[in-house]
Amino acid sequence: MQDSNNFNIHLPDLETIKQGKEFLFLERDGRKEKIEFHDYDRIYEIPGLYEHLFYEQYKCNSPVVVCGLLKKHIEQEHKDNEQLVALDIGAGNGMMGEQLADLGAKAIVGVDIIDEAAEAVQRDRPGIYDAYHVADLTDMPPDVEQSLKKIDFNCMTVVAALGFGDIPPDAFASGYNLVSAQGWVAFNIKEDFICAEDQSGFCKLIERLEDDGIVEIRERLRYRHRFCQDGTPLYYYAVVGKKQMNISTKVLAEISVALKPVEA
Ligand SMILES: C[S@@+](CC[C@H](N)C(=O)[O-])C[C@H]1O[C@@H](n2cnc3c(N)ncnc32)[C@H](O)[C@@H]1O
């Protein structure tokens, strides 16, 4: 397929493939390169490829759904979207940042672990974020942490970035703990990651967040996040809640112990 975006890709026609294993071939200068869908560094480097692949081809609508749910709950409280000071983690090339900007957020700060994400934002969506940090939320550099701590965030968003080797529970907690009490939290997560068999840690984390009164969940909405490469619809939950208190290191330790496989 030759696209107006100036790249030439081939998507394999597969009977069955698991999410997380999907791939494409990119043709450039007579060379064919295999790129996995989770090779975000490579995908962000090619203008328009991320949007074409996930949004046009596989019909992802998560930023719109998550942001729509957040808007609904802000409005139900008769609060003003324009007062939002949002921390968007796993921000990528700014798809969620764009929705938050459309919502009228007062300030948006993005964090992503790879340089290519920041470069893609600068190239394709300049001005969406008031600041954008390249940092691993599981091991935040002190200067990034300091600068984030100076901001009074009243919202954290995480879209299409939990599980699948992306943002783990402790990185989620680092972002969450930067938000003030009564701040909003809006994220999405694959339905498999919030069922009892889950090993990503999110099932246990969300259970503890609710049981311990760390978050007050306002709504969980099951919806189709996108299609998998084999045509299977992928269902996620969009979740919106209000932060009540920080996630302690004790809670995180207990979750990780609960996940350790029992030795035979
Ligand atoms: C599928 S992309 C989602 C991007 C964007 N939120 C969207 O909705 O299009 C997941 C992003 O999470 C980032 N990520 C993975 N692990 C991370 C970590 N530990 N800290 C910060 N970002 C991380 C990846 O680099 C990638 O850009």
Summarize the structure in words.
- By secondary structure, this protein is an alpha/beta fold.
- The protein has two domains: 8-57, no CATH class; 62-259, Rossmann fold (3-Layer(aba) Sandwich), CATH 3.40.50.150.
- 33% of the residues lie in helices and 27% in strands.
- The protein has nine helices and ten strands.
- A seven-stranded mixed sheet has the order 6-5-4-7-8-10-9, sandwiched between helices. Strands 1-2-3 form a three-stranded antiparallel sheet.
- Strand 5, helix 5 and strand 6 (131-134) form a beta-alpha-beta unit.
- Helix 3 (62-76) runs parallel beside helix 4.
- The longest helix is centred in the N-terminal third of the chain and has 15 residues, at 62-76.
- The radius of gyration is 18 Å and the shape is globular.
- The model has no long low-confidence stretch (mean pLDDT 93).
- It binds S-adenosylmethionine.
- S-adenosylmethionine (SAM) binds at residues 40, 62-63, 89-92, 95-96, 111-114, 117, 136-138, 159-161, 166-167, 171.
Give a quick precis of the structure.
This protein is α/β, with parallel strands linked by helices and 264 residues long. It has helices at residues 40-45, 49-57, 62-76, 95-103, 115-124, 142-149, 169-176, 202-211, 249-259, and strands at residues 8-10, 23-28, 31-36, 85-89, 107-112, 131-134, 153-158, 179-190, 215-227, 233-243.
